[in-house]
């Protein structure tokens, strides 16, 4: 309790202010100053701060806390980092996946958490996994989620950005990144795998690139059980058949259906007071869109709502209207009926926004009420 009293509230507030600005160098300087300030007043705190500074990851060595002092590999010509790194790993919004994808991801995580049991049985946890599917369906988010669940640093190598006109140099860059990731437990994502792992029978590709594929296959085979190697591609049809065989887990991501869109929209709007019927209507008109498309639209209407000082529900209705024009008449009619029946829009406004006549909306509501009445009567008759 004495140590807590000796910590100045002003120091805590200033440290928090620096941390929230995202200027890591300023934070480090201030922590060093605090370590000196509390050397005599609170030796335990001072010692802990010094140890944190010693072990803290940096831009040049993000895995230092894990015992790896090797600097992040860089391109020898441009000196730019070859990998993006995140540590600690933060997932802003919990991902939403279909049942099969969720089960496959959970399996990878659970195997890691029970690695000792697997090793006792002469088995290794899954070391490699290949994510396939169209853009924006959550492949990178899934990789980040795995890293967070396993409490491991997350490294991303975008293969489309490291391709050099000198393919021998590309091979060297790839080896440096893979060797670096092997040095300490982490999750490494090879993004845009099809950029280099193309079919070796492709007549367009040059021999050096085909040899690069061979190098990659060897590296996958030699991947240690201490780390997780993930790869993602939007064009699985371009991959060399041998690549498929090298990965222990193959996880296919698809465009989300209506139920997943509703869950995703609900999570994105969880801090807003939004009625479920608006969420359902929006999910209906956005069917066929990816998760990233939906997130972009939601962020846009939240900005609009704040800038124009309007209700978020009004912005949602406008978004529904913009996308409804691309849906068939029956879908627009159902949405219009729902919004009018729930009192969200007048018949005239629903007609304007969803391009459905008021007569059609009135008739549709009448039919719905008739169906509900018939269902109630049928239920009563069964009870009697």
UniProtKB/TrEMBL annotation:
Gene3D superfamilies reported for this sequence: P-loop containing nucleotide triphosphate hydrolases
Keyword annotations of the record: ATP-binding, Nucleotide-binding
Record InterPro entries: 26S_Proteasome_ATPase (IPR050221), AAA+_ATPase (IPR003593), ATPase_AAA_core (IPR003959), P-loop_NTPase (IPR027417)
CDD domains with a match to the protein in the record: RecA-like_protease
Keyword ATP-binding annotated: yes
Gene Ontology molecular function, alphabetical: ATP binding; ATP hydrolysis activity
Domain of life of the source: Bacteria
Family membership: Belongs to the AAA ATPase family.
Protein name listed in UniProt: AAA family ATPase
Organism annotation: Amycolatopsis pithecellobii
